[in-house]
Amino acid sequence: MKKILSVAIITILVSLVGNVRPTCASTDAQRQARHTERVKTAIQKLGAGKESRIAVKLRDDSKLVGYVSEVNEDDFAITSSSNGAITRVKYPNVRQVKGQNLSTGAKIAIISLSIATGLLAFFLWLENYD
Questions:
Q1: CB 102 within 8 A of CB 45
Q2: Of 107, 124, 123, 98, nearest to 46 (Cα)?
């Protein structure tokens, strides 16, 4: 039994080590390009409209808060909630993005969880009612 267990553990460890891939260091330009692409994807996923609340920190340490009013290939527009000013932002100028709306999947999960909790509470009430 000990031999079989030892062979199984060694096999698992060898398979894990075999899946390790060496990585090479990327240049600043490559990291910047990946970051810009992630920002662009996040903004496009968030979409445009008053429900697309966003907080953006730019590379010059300024912050913009409002909603995404327009999404283009090279830039996007943020409309300020406080004064309605529109600011165009190029994707490479963004350091950090925080979107504040929920995706459709998250909304469905919240609704499903609420329904399940309500049903559970109802059935527990029925059980204790007897």
A1: no
A2: 98
In this structure, are residues 36 and 91 in contact, taking their beta carbons and an 8 Å threshold?
Answer: yes
Residue 23 vs residues 20, 26, 36: alpha-carbon distances, Å:
9, 9, 21
Q: Cα–Cα distance between 67 and 54 in angstroms, integer?
A: 5
Structure token pair of residue 74: 């090279």
pLDDT tens-digit readout, 84-128: 899 999 999 998 888 766 555 656 666 777 777 777 777 777 777
For residues 99 and 71, what is the distance between their CA atoms, to the nearest angstrom? 14
How many residues does the structure list for the chain?
130
Task: Return the structure tokens found at 48.
Answer: 């445009």
